[in-house]
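User: I'm preparing a small set of examples for a lab meeting where we compare how different chains pack in three dimensions. I only have the primary sequence for this one, and I'd like the structure in token form so I can line it up with the others. Please keep the answer compact; I'll paste it straight into my notes.
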Amino acid sequence: VKIFAPNIEQRDVVNHLKGSPAEEKRNVLVESARLARGNIQDLAELKVGEFDAVIFPGGFGVAKNLCSWAVDGKNCTVNEHVKSTLQAFHSAKKPIGLCCISPVLAARVFPGCEVTVGQDKNVDGRFPDAETASAIAELGCKHICKDVSESHVDKANKIVTTCAFMCKAPLHEIFDGIGTMVEEVLKLA
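Assistant: Understood. Below is the structure token output for the 189-residue chain.
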């Protein structure tokens, strides 16, 4: 297992204690290294032949830094290194795991694929970003409704997705859903 991140400037920096933007600048690779405790490489150096699968975490950073979904929605652009990594794993017929908001990366790069970001309706207030499912469908992909503890496997494309924090759920349920995604990715590897 190795961890990679693009060597780019973050779109912005948020002070999560205050919930407001901060004036500082940060680099995605440097910030990712902080979270990974230093054991990380530039995404540009990833060689698909050295790995059995790839998994992209989610989080708002994906929507702001790995693509421009946070600003442009379904008209977003995907970072070139992220896009080429996804395409390389897909071309090599190796599994791709995506959770939280990151299934939009697949929806943008692989028209016609199947993904989940949870539900397409805000059921009981648990899915406040349910409109993401409609945007995925507008991109020509099929959104599959799943609960937070489940994942979806697009067998034709070897893409496994789960909604994670796209659902307002207890952490243990989010953990379970991510666990099913990882299990399914490993089965396909």
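A couple of notes for your slides: The mean pLDDT is 95. Residues 65 and 148 are 24 Å apart (CA to CA).

User: Perfect, thanks.
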